[in-house]
UniProtKB/TrEMBL annotation:
<dbReference type="GO" id="GO:0043103">
    <property type="term" value="P:hypoxanthine salvage"/>
</dbReference>
<feature type="binding site">
    <location>
        <position position="26"/>
    </location>
    <ligand>
        <name>Zn(2+)</name>
    </ligand>
</feature>
<feature type="binding site">
    <location>
        <position position="206"/>
    </location>
    <ligand>
        <name>Zn(2+)</name>
    </ligand>
</feature>
<feature type="domain" description="Adenosine deaminase">
    <location>
        <begin position="21"/>
        <end position="341"/>
    </location>
</feature>
<dbReference type="Pfam" id="PF00962">
    <property type="entry name" value="A_deaminase"/>
</dbReference>
<comment type="function">
    <text>Catalyzes the hydrolytic deamination of adenine to hypoxanthine. Plays an important role in the purine salvage pathway and in nitrogen catabolism.</text>
</comment>
<feature type="site" description="Important for catalytic activity">
    <location>
        <position position="230"/>
    </location>
</feature>
<comment type="similarity">
    <text>Belongs to the metallo-dependent hydrolases superfamily. Adenosine and AMP deaminases family. Adenine deaminase type 2 subfamily.</text>
</comment>
<dbReference type="InterPro" id="IPR001365">
    <property type="entry name" value="A_deaminase_dom"/>
</dbReference>
<dbReference type="InterPro" id="IPR032466">
    <property type="entry name" value="Metal_Hydrolase"/>
</dbReference>
<feature type="active site" description="Proton donor">
    <location>
        <position position="209"/>
    </location>
</feature>
<protein>
    <recommendedName>
        <fullName>Adenine deaminase</fullName>
        <ecNumber>3.5.4.2</ecNumber>
    </recommendedName>
</protein>
<dbReference type="InterPro" id="IPR006330">
    <property type="entry name" value="Ado/ade_deaminase"/>
</dbReference>
<keyword id="KW-0546">Nucleotide metabolism</keyword>
<dbReference type="InterPro" id="IPR028892">
    <property type="entry name" value="ADE"/>
</dbReference>
<dbReference type="GO" id="GO:0006146">
    <property type="term" value="P:adenine catabolic process"/>
</dbReference>
<feature type="binding site">
    <location>
        <position position="287"/>
    </location>
    <ligand>
        <name>Zn(2+)</name>
    </ligand>
</feature>
């Protein structure tokens, strides 16, 4: 049953949203590359950029759809070459996460974006893993890695990538599917996801961001994913909504990303409230925060300012973020206790 907090007024929501413990389950680490760090790494590695300055690069972040964003996203990632570069990128994100009261994060990374440029798989995974371990020790933030396949490439390329990553299997907990959704349905990756399942990897996939509800069905039935990334287009299919609710399939919703990529024309038109009313395990996430106008707390703040959501919704979303994570039950219980304690403080 939904908890309510009628005594927490709307004007206290911004402080509550910032203070409440939360998890982030949909963050592409390459999408946390700020223009300043892109320029620093370009200088360190002697990579020439097509933009003369940080300001010019920032100004180019005016996307019209997923593809126009991806074009600049891959250009930004071109400065990442060494293990230290991957560490520094992830460390910058994890420090921000700690400052926003993120207790746990499951970080997506796209090895193909890097291995296709000749960067060794070891540099990618060791760099990210070093930052994740350091976050646990120095920041008290639990961080895990999820290897994602680029869906605009072939399944054979994905299979090859998986084999390359297998010597480092102990360093990542799951596999996902991202990049251009339209024209690249989940079933294109049936074999590689079957292989991931055999390996005991936890499975997620982007579906129903720009693609139709059918992609969500196939992500569940063909790929057998445990979580749907985005999934906001499920509301067009009542039978799908019933199933997602019945099976408690979490949706990792990214409100600012959805507006920036024109999935919704403004935050006030976002369907997050409807998803929660339909009993779906929705969570709030930042997706590619350097590119979409904000990290996790900014997503919460702007979304709650634009929609008729209250403290009860905030509690549900934060609690969902822990419950939808791949952490063990003891960690989840400990985090939810801290969440409850924060809401008590706001009494
Ligand atoms: Zn995403």
């Amino acid at each position: 049953m939904k908890k309510t907090f009628p005594h927490i007024p709307r004007e206290r929501l911004p402080a509550l949203l910032a203070a409440m413990p939360k998890a982030e389950l949909h963050i592409h680490i390459e999408g946390s590359l700020e223009p300043e760090l892109i320029f620093e790494l370009a200088k360190r590695n002697g990579v020439a950029l097509a933009y003369p300055s940080v300001e010019a690069l920032r100004a180019a972040y005016a996307f019209t759809d997923l593809q126009s964003f991806l074009d600049i996203y891959y250009a930004g990632a071109s400065v990442l070459l060494t293990e230290d570069d991957f560490h520094d990128m992830a460390w910058a994100y994890l420090r921000r996460a700690a400052a926003e009261n993120v207790l746990h994060t499951e970080i997506f990374f796209d090895p193909q974006t890097h291995t296709a440029r000749g960067v060794p798989m070891e540099a990618v995974i060791h760099g990210l893993k070093r930052a994740a371990d350091r976050a646990g020790a120095e920041l008290g933030v639990s961080a895990q890695l999820i290897l994602c396949f680029l869906r605009h490439l072939s399944e054979d390329d994905a299979l090859q990538t998986l084999e390359q990553a297998l010597p480092l299997r102990e360093h990542f907990i799951g596999a996902g599917l991202d990049s251009s959704e339209r024209g690249h349905p989940p079933e294109k990756f049936a074999r590689v996801f079957a292989r991931c399942r055999e390996l005991g990897l936890r499975l997620v996939a982007h579906a129903g961001e720009e693609g139709p509800p059918e992609y969500i069905w196939n992500a569940l039935d063909v790929l057998k994913v445990e979580r749907i990334d985005h999934g906001v287009r499920c509301l067009g299919d009542p039978a799908l909504v019933q199933r997602l609710a019945r099976e408690h399939i979490p949706l990792t919703v990214c409100p600012l990303s959805n507006v920036k990529l024109c999935v919704f024309d403004q935050l006030g038109a976002h369907n997050l409230g409807e998803l929660l009313s339909a009993g779906l395990a929705a969570t709030v996430n930042s997706d590619d925060p350097a590119y979409f106008g904000g990290y996790l707390n900014q997503n919460y703040l702007e979304t709650f300012a634009a929609l008729p959501l209250d403290a009860g919704h905030a509690y549900t979303l934060a609690r969902n973020s822990f419950e939808a994570s791949f952490a063990d039950q003891a960690d989840k219980a400990r985090w939810i206790e801290r969440l409850d304690a924060t809401f008590e403080q706001f009494r």
